[in-house]
Amino acid sequence: MSLAPVSAPSAATSDSPGPDEAELLAFVRRIAADDALVASLPLDPEGRTWLRLEGPGGSEAWLIGWPPGTGTGWHDHGGSRGAFATARGALTEHALAARIPTEGWKTLELADGVDRERQLAAGSGRAFGPHHVHEVLNGSDSAHAVSVHAYYPPLPLMRRYSRTGAVLRLEEVEHPGEWE
Q1: What three-state secondary structure class fits 140?
Q2: Ramachandran angles phi, psi of 113, nearest 5°
Q3: Could you read off the pLDDT of 118-136 as tens digits, one per residue?
Q4: pTM (2 decimals)?
Q5: Which residue ranges form the domains of the chain, and what is each CATH number?
Q6: Which residues contact 98 (CB under 8 A, 6 or more apart)?
Q7: What is the phi/psi pair of residue 165, to 5°?
Q8: Which of 61, 114, 139, 169 could, after both became Cys, cross-link 98 (CB 3.0–4.6 A)?
Q9: Phi, psi of 38 (to 5 degrees)
Q10: 3-state secondary structure of 70
Q11: Distance, CA of 81 to CA of 52 (rounded, Å)
Q12: Which helix (H) or strand (E) holds 91?
């Protein structure tokens, strides 16, 4: 089976701010509704699978397959804004409703009330700003999920965190190529 990236008209110019959160969300919802593309993603029972896509206006996009019980762990998107939509199955997002500083710390104690949880069934999506810290999970014990993600600017890095109760700890900074 051959997988081909999706092309979207590029609106980015050198002075363009790139697609905003609403445009990224519209894109991921449109791609999530493309049954043929979603069905073309090979699914692996052992680990996540992905296909890089061409997003709108120079954004980076991904089609991702999630086996039952898999997740991302806590992370951010290096200052990029983004959106994702569930195409098949269901995903859970745990997010922090607090702006986390990007530099100068290794461990933070989170205040009460910053945790948010969203259930995203097929067809559901959400957009987020450049300071978003979250984890995404396929909590099913039997069904794969598939989702579409888009980021602008393309991910310059991803910070990975561990979390124990109210303590968030920076564990690793990944750069492009380390997650592809």
Answers
A1: coil
A2: 85, 5
A3: 999 999 999 999 999 999 9
A4: 0.89
A5: 21-98+111-155 (2.60.120.10)
A6: 110, 111, 114
A7: 60, -125
A8: 114
A9: -60, -45
A10: coil
A11: 17
A12: strand 90-96
